[in-house]
Description:
13 strands
Amino acid sequence: MKIFLTGGTGFVGKHILRDLLDNNYQVRCLVRHGSEEKIVHYKDIEVVNGDITDVGSLDGKLTGCDAVINLVGIIREFPSRGITFEKLHYEGTVNLVRAAKSQGVRRFVQMSALGAQPNGKTKYQQTKFRAEEYVRSSGLDYTIFRPSIIFGTEDKFVNLFANMLKIQQFVPVVGNGRYQMQPVAVENVSAGFVKSIERKDAIRKTFDVGGPEKIEFNQIIDIIGEVICAPPNKIHIPAFIMGLLAEMFDWLPFFPVTQEQITMLLEGNICNEKPFFEYFGVKPIGFKEGISSYL
Length: 295
């Protein structure tokens, strides 16, 4: 069975790519020019150049595949470079769904995000939901996954705070830090994606994906500090001050947080995780256990 994989050079994508190969799937990866070196060490894959935001680059690229896994997504926009939630999340998904239909691929597995909703306070949430709705209305045999914050080797969440603690032993926290999150191991997310491909009973279903623990942000920082033996000093910064700073500086790539991320952070990000783990028979990995394996 051949899988057409987008986003295979990213953090989650590389895990799913490896798991697909370990489960004897053939994989054709759609890769933008210049990104091939990120997966060059995988010898048993087919690499084709293209971009889901470029309709023409998808012509004929899905032919002969049995399923699509779409992982393309961003966590912040850079409009001056043409990188927007609308373009990547929604328009890209529309292009890929149309390409799948025209090239005879019926199975479609979509990466969305926990918190995607039509009336979301952020463009991130809104565009993720609109992409879901397009997939649902496509007539394809779809499965949609909505993960919470994903952690694992090369993640940009746990590693960000771990590096802060290693250098300075203090971490800025937006507001009171009492908002809850449900970080989920990339291994668990990947297992769900791969197991879903041939599960007919997963077709036309949407799964929320969170880890086995609902954890306050303050506790997340404490656990990271405990694992790397660097007790954290948390500096709580009022949300309105962080919002003002983000408004001024979130266009800079190195500024750690955007206004949209602050909004979503304060909302919290939790779900009922049991249906996902039970449905696919995946053993949950706890947060401390998981990050201890790579920090």
